[in-house]
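note to self: dont lose this again. the chain is below, predicted strucutre after it. 190 aa total, dont forget to put it in the shared folder this time
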Amino acid sequence: MTTDEVLAGVGPRLRQMRKDREVTLAALSETTGISVSTLSRLESGLRKPSLELLLPIARAHQVALDELVGAPAAGDPRVRSKPIVMGGRTHWPLTRQPGGLQAYKVLEPKRRQEPDPRTHEGYEWLYVLSGRLRLVLGEHDVVLTAGEAAEFDTRVPHWFGSTGEGPVEFLSLFGPQGERMHVRARPKSA
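---
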């Protein structure tokens, strides 16, 4: 594919991405600082895409620049991420692209914790690889074992962690809403 062919596909891709997200030109203009007329000309192919225009649009849509221009996949497809330790848990990111659906492999050490249910927008999906995962979801308190999965509305107060019997390894999938800061579902008693 030639450079001109790649650039010719940018406008329609930008329009489709904006419409899929149900964002108006005015809202995108406000977020990016790019005028409505420039965004419109860019989407219709009357304005040549530049980094100066594409970078703020990519940030607004929370996608990689490659996704905006439709760059062909290149290089090694394997995800080589470094582990991140948060709150005693070790997380391995399994996705490279910012925004959208995110996947993590998580290792929760053997420990007993008092559940502290929280809420956020969206849905979460968990799959236990090994060990036993305690899930507190609303009024439910269940233990998932290797090979079991759970999917739930994260607006319901929830918490998950080790049962205290041993470590647990699981996969976690969630969308952009799941990346927001958690809000306590109820005050923590003193």
